[in-house]
Fold this protein.
Amino acid sequence: MLSICARCLLRSTRLGPRLPRQRAALHTDDPGLSPALLTRARFLAAEHAQLSDRLGETFDAKAAKRAGELGPVASVLREWDTANESITELKSLLNDPGTDTELHSLAIEDLESSKASLLTISDRLKQSLIPRHPFADLPCLLEIRPGAGGDEAGLFAFEMLRMYMALCSRRGLRPTIIKQDSDSGTGEDRLAEGVIEVETEGAYDLLRTEMGVHRVQRVPATEAKGRTHTSAVSVLVLPSFPEDGSSMDSALNFEDPNSDYYIDPQEVRTEKMRASGAGGQHVNKTESAIRLTHIPTGTVVSMQDSRSQQANRKKAWQVLRAKIAEARQEAREQEIMVLRRGAMGGVAKMGRGDKIRTYNFNQARCTDHRSGITVHNLDNVMDGGDGLETVMDSVRTWLNDREVEAMVVEEQTKQQQK
Amino acid sequence: MPRLPPSLLTTVARESPLLSLLLKECRTLESARNELRWLRERVLRDGPAPGWATRLRSMCRARSRGLPLQYILGDQPFGDLDILCRRGVLIPRPETEAYTFQAAKLIRRAIETSGTKSLSVLDLCTGTGCIALLLHALLAPHIEQLRVIGIDISPAALQLARRNLTHNLERGSLTDRASADVQFHLADVLRDDKHDIPTVEAVLFDQGLPACDLLVSNPPYVSPSDFRDGTTARSVRHFEPKLALVPPSLHGQVSDLGQEDVFYSRIITLSRKLRPRITVLECGDLMQARRAAAIHESVTAEVSEDFSVEVWPSGQRDLEENGFHAHDGSRCVIIQRRDKDLCRQPD
């Protein structure tokens, strides 16, 4: 077994990038990996080989980045090939009537373990094929708003704000509350709108599992008769762009009019909100609120948390940019969805309006409706502990599985069109 | 001051007794909440030290008596700068911030069209030094040589202005060259006769600056009646220096000039000698701005030079973007010298 593997490895490195074409025809014992995905993997691995060749001669930052992205695909595909080959050889050994009985039983054992490992390898291969989300490497903004449920929704929104703050601090992600509004006439522990900025790069990818409507079921503190209420809190995860757009990739450079995320300053109305009447030396008001309105989409962002109008303006722009980028990205995803839907016959995406998770206090459980996971340590979840991360991890797996499904459909349609 | 609705008072009292204290001065729940948060953040800035709750309560009590928040906290953001505030020196206002940004924008446009490499700025009645320092922060990246001179009659103000210079150098909001470029000097803007305080001309002569490119000023402009009759807020009247608010009465000088306008007359006369390309003067309201513009017209009546005079902000977009009320509240006068060679009139 060992010797076979070593030989295969040697052979595959010797033959290099020309191999894929021959191997594409190789029949597989892998039920999980569709031919369509395999073709895609071969295609990407070949691109990687080409790029590596070119990088051997001259350095090109763009090519290096792309090669880095494709690296995992190529290496996992090699592993997959190796495993497949060893299975084929074991099978031929079994079919050979000249094999003695001892070797025969050994081969059967090996075949079983090889098949098992092939499954995990093909799983990893699928994961590596998922294209990176365009915002995956960015820091993020997390917006929390109470939905249906009145006071109770505001209370729970406040608890969720604390939950995410605790989670981010525990993971060392540098969270800051940049906006914490409560409605007039209610207490400060009732959130009307909260925004957390998570400055660490890649935070968007980590937290994007949280986007959607979170439902809470419990007897609220405000309830006198002991009835259980159901309320909702919606969470938005938005990409956070650095202040200076030119440091970004061209696609994400929001200062470049050709970028998808460009906002024309002419289309944004700025208002400083001040109580009317006398101004200047006659009075000394401390208001510093700023409101921005993106006229074409009607998106409004107001910010009043800092004493500095300049700081409020910067934060408001950051949130506005994030909201519009997210909306545009979502519109694009929607287009792809429409294309896919014809082939798939169903919808696999959860939008921001879908109920994604329930926190049930009476049963002390937290259930995610996408992955179907239920965690029973609700206190730990609300403290932003491991429980919450378990849920988030299961959702990430779910999201990836949906991506893979979509990919299969896409490749199949592509091949049918050929 | 309009009476607060009882329902608001009860909600606030239920939320926090500190908020009730702040509401007396803030008048709206929104701003009382903001101020409470800012105060609490300041008290807890270095972690909860023993006695922080008591300190917070005494701060709120001081605020309820009308003491400006900036004197309690000791500072006020101004652009990207942090301006230290002390009793005896006027607190920077958001309108002044808007005028400073506008002045910087206009002079930058003038630099770009004329291609000059050096620029001198004069800020009369500088107070905390906020205008002078912010102008340096905004202009320094765009010009090789920059000199900014701030003038004030109050030694306390000058001391604070210099501290603000070092304070903002330390926190990195000003570039290192500011320590050489920006200077604050004692002078009396109003008097040009013999006096133990030097005149502006004398100071500029000492500094070897016969002229300047940008002249800005936020002089005292509150009339004695406005100061008394409630137009001026209690907090301002009781806690901010009258010296920085109400111009002195000039006994023995026969003129039809109102006491609140004396600084404009003097500064515009001065600007005849200094020949700035752009002059920006803060005024109390639209009427005062028009009076200042009229003073400029009369002073330059016999001069063949061409000026453009505007009251800013006046367009709806400018008003909204800078948080100005459509009719009431402060305005500034912007006087630009039309010089065909140097400074083409921008659109």
In short: Strands of chain B lie at 75-78, 81-84, 118-124, 145-152, 182-186, 214-217, 278-283, 306-312, 331-338. Chain B has two domains: 6-65, 78-86+88-338. Residues 94-114 of chain B form the longest helix (21 residues).
